[in-house]
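Researcher: Next entry in the queue.
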Amino acid sequence: MINIGIIGCGYWGPNLIRNYTQLPNCNMLMCCDSDEKKLNRMNTLFPGIQTTNDINQIITSPEIDAVGIATPVFTHYDLAKEALLHEKHVFVEKPLCHSSDACLELIRLAEKKGKVLMVGHTFEYTAAVNKIKKIVESGELGEILYIASVRLNLGLFQPDINVIWDLAPHDISIITYLLGEHPTSVNGQGKAHYRKDIEDVATITLNFSNGTIAFIHSSWLDPNKVRTTTIVGSKKMLVYNDTEPQEKIKIYDKGVDAPPYYDTFAEFQFSYRYGDIHIPRIEDYEPLRRECSHFLECIEENQTPRTNGYSGLRVVSVLEAANESLKKKGQAVPIRYAKLLRKAA
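Model: Structure for this entry, 345 residues:
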């Protein structure tokens, strides 16, 4: 049995507690929050769990093997570092840290201590995204021309990070996971309407060395909750709608063909293909349960998590460059990930 403690019982922490409580190879020992009302709620929902408002009781406890962190992003580095220094395995909600350099420090520390460091990129554990990855890798869609991700809703406004840092980590992790590639540069544009210097609507463009381009639109200011990713290939097109309860993936046998040759401009005509729509069957399970179970398995079997520290570093390096591009009015900014890898070696 792996004893685990969760720091943060706000928006996402209770979901982690629920899943770890229900997993057979885990003992959900303790949770921590500065708000007594949240701790009382945890006691009501999960009778028997120990609660505390003292973080050190979790981090220094010799009984606790692993720590889950679901707190604001600017607290992640300090909490994760202390937990690793006290010989704990660490699970951190996205994004891993507030900077690439901080991510790199945690990666090195985890490797030095021989501990598992895992990031909560939950969508990489969903049945739909893994089905899409198999479809992309099979070549059914052809060459991937571009990807467009849209993640919109009304709220929740964050007091310390902008909408890119809040919502775009999901789309960045999905896109890089599906393509198996990391972007080389990013353009970002956005606007802060309600809090100074905290953008509530933004669009970023990811540029890949193989010519693929990806667009991510994030907003806290939309009347509808939208969670869609469109993948346009040279053969077929795919739409992933995460808000659909059943038919999350649709493959469209649609496309554009250019004539192989022509003698005059008048003879040049595109051919548009309108074929069938295919809805593949996907397995139904809770992604967070799969993610939490994977964390425990990696601890038990001394494995590297799918979303390890380097996965977190990839996403944070894009977020940093996107933020810099926002300040430069959309100018393309190189992503430091490759340099950081060389630095880590």
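Model: Residues 309-327 form the longest helix (19 residues).
Researcher: Noted, moving on.
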